[in-house]
Specification:
By secondary structure, the protein is mainly β. It has a single domain, classed as Jelly Rolls, CATH 2.60.120. 10% of the residues lie in helices and 46% in strands. The protein has 1 helix and 10 strands, in the order αββββββββββ. A 5-stranded antiparallel beta sheet has the order 1-2-9-4-7, covered by helices on one side. It is globular and about 40 Å long. 28% of the residues are buried.
Length: 149
């Protein structure tokens, strides 16, 4: 991993760990590990502007852990490797809930406001690909609790 990629990875880990603002809902019991970060230069159906990158990370969510309410700067693809992960989405003022198990995957759009929770008694492991990550490494945008779930 080059210096730039390592720097971006450290920024991302710091941002995710320190996530939470006065208006946002902080997560708890979630441990991210950035696996890699880089630019995709070939056409794969995902548009990235100059300075944007793709980040691949593994997230471990403890029993009772939550991501807090948030969105992402670009599309995000998530695959559940272990455990069951319940996703709450604010869909036009209505709560949408779905639980995903090992081998299940889902895509979050840039505009999706959501929160993931490990409601089980075993650890959840997620593989996550973040697209269109800005140069500052932000993969998560804290959001206030929409009050619909």
């Amino acid at each position: 991993m080059g210096r730039r990629s390592l720097g971006i990875a450290l920024v991302i880990v710091s941002i995710v760990v320190m996530a939470g603002t006065a208006l946002g809902t902080a997560g708890s019991g979630v441990t991210p590990v950035v696996i890699g970060s880089g630019r995709i230069d070939h056409a794969v159906g995902i548009s990235q502007a100059a300075g944007q990158s793709t980040v691949i990370a593994e997230f471990t969510v403890d029993p009772g852990g939550t991501t807090g309410w948030h969105s992402h700067p670009g599309k995000t693809v998530v695959v559940v490797a272990e455990g069951e992960f319940t996703l709450y989405r604010d869909k036009d003022g209505t709560c949408r809930t779905r639980t995903y198990g090992p081998g299940d995957g889902f895509v979050e759009k840039r505009t999706s406001v959501h929160m993931g929770v490990n409601e089980g008694d075993t650890t959840v492991v997620l593989g996550v690909a973040f697209f269109r990550v800005p140069a500052d490494g932000t993969t998560r945008i804290d959001k206030p609790d929409p009050g619909v779930c």
